[in-house]
Specification:
By secondary structure, the chain is an alpha/beta fold. The chain has an 8-stranded mixed β-sheet.
């Protein structure tokens, strides 16, 4: 299927949730992004995608400047959050990135937490849970201050139960599930 995507230049929606395409499949689809300039919604949730596929997505998302929503939920993308955030911040039309839940192996949770913090800082976002502000990266200069470090510790504790990252018009939903 990925081989023929470049022929669908007017395609606006790709919905492949739950098709188990994995890293190879999403990588092949991401390679076609340069031909899919009209795409406004991409849903590849629940496809067994890991940080390898997340990296392929992040590298190619720059081509999707009309993309308004991306759904990446139920994939093991916690170790590619930073790269994805760097791609998201350069996408002027993107308003929603749903990664709820994003999973990682228990042994990698500490790395996933650092990826989440990098993503929040890249987006200069605010981390909220049920409308309660946990952390505000838009107010942090450099690597952060002591008060912000304490705030990040509170946000970090809530990652497994789910947080919302708001950065201007971009909303990112993430919930770290440890497997």
């Amino acid at each position: 299927m990925a081989e023929g995507l470049h022929l669908l230049k007017k395609l606006t929606v790709v919905f492949l949730e739950g098709n188990n395409i994995g890293d190879d499949g999403v990588g092949a689809i991401a390679e076609a992004f340069s031909q899919l300039k009209e795409l406004t919604r991409l849903d590849v949730g629940g496809n067994g995608i890991t940080d390898v596929g997340g990296t392929a997505l992040a590298r190619n998302l720059v081509h999707l400047q009309k993309l308004r929503a991306i759904y990446l939920k139920n994939n093991e993308l916690a170790l590619s959050l930073s790269q994805l955030a760097k791609a998201f911040v350069n996408m002027s039309s993107l308003g929603l990135a749903n990664l709820w839940p994003v999973t990682c192996r228990a042994a990698d949770f500490h790395l996933a937490v650092e990826q989440a913090r990098d993503a929040v800082h890249t987006l200069r976002g605010r981390v909220l849970q049920r409308l309660n502000l946990l952390y505000d990266a838009s107010r942090v200069s450099g690597d952060g201050k002591k008060g912000q470090d304490a705030a990040w510790q509170r946000a970090k504790q809530q990652l497994p139960s789910g947080v919302f990252i708001s950065s201007g018009k971009l909303k990112v939903f993430t919930h770290h599930t440890v497997e």
